[in-house]
Write the structure tokens for this entry.
Amino acid sequence: MSDEFAPLIRTDIPHSARIWNYWMGGKDHYEIDRVAGDAGIAVDPDITTMAVQSRQFLIRAVRYLAGEVGIDQFLDIGTGLPTMQNTHEVAQSIIPAARIVYVDNDPLVLTHARALLTRTTDEGVTTYIDTDFHHPERIVADARNVLNMTRPVGVMFMGVLGHAETFDELRRIVHTVLDATPSGSHLVFWDGTTDDPAYVTLCENYTKTGGAPYTPRPRAELLAVFDGLDLVEPGFVQINQWRIDAARVGVAGPLAAWGGVARKP
């Protein structure tokens, strides 16, 4: 672990990125995160399914954008801890010269990013920005050093904007970034909803541990994030139902996690 960031990493307070990594079956977490994670599972057993399905949604969305749309630039904001098939690995397997900028401000995430979030091809570029997503103007300014913002960009907010204090703040963050991108850019967005009382209780309990509050929102609010954009088929759906193989329909049950992919006109 980097000496630069190690003193900033709190191991006495659970952290959402580390808990999420635990729920996904990763290895980058501490005892306090496992305790909080197990407590969450006891309240909402579907949370591990949500975690795994969120990564599957990311993989399918990036494959679609790189493989079918031809987007070769991605801005993944609030990336979390690296795990299997990260954005750059998926994109660069399809477009070797793809450029990916990750954004996070968590010391543990940044430590792992330096070691693991490296380009997978000679032609591609993979880098990260140490910035809080509450400062989208800064994200855009830094991203311009790597991405050509006159060409379409895939902008990604994957299950992180529950940390925004209000819905208005959430929309401001998303659209400040999107406003800096040209027509043909795409938004990939999902987040947790209030559909499942167990998930809502899990988030409430997590806040009581001292972790950064995470707010599930009504499905209609999340759909409104796509206002002004053209949702691609199948539209705004549960993430485990977005462009899955026909043979897999129904494999995973209902989730309190909705999202989609949309094109900027």
Notes: Residues 47-69 form the longest helix (23 residues). The radius of gyration is 17 Å. Residues 240 and 265 are 26 Å apart (CA to CA). The mean pLDDT is 89.
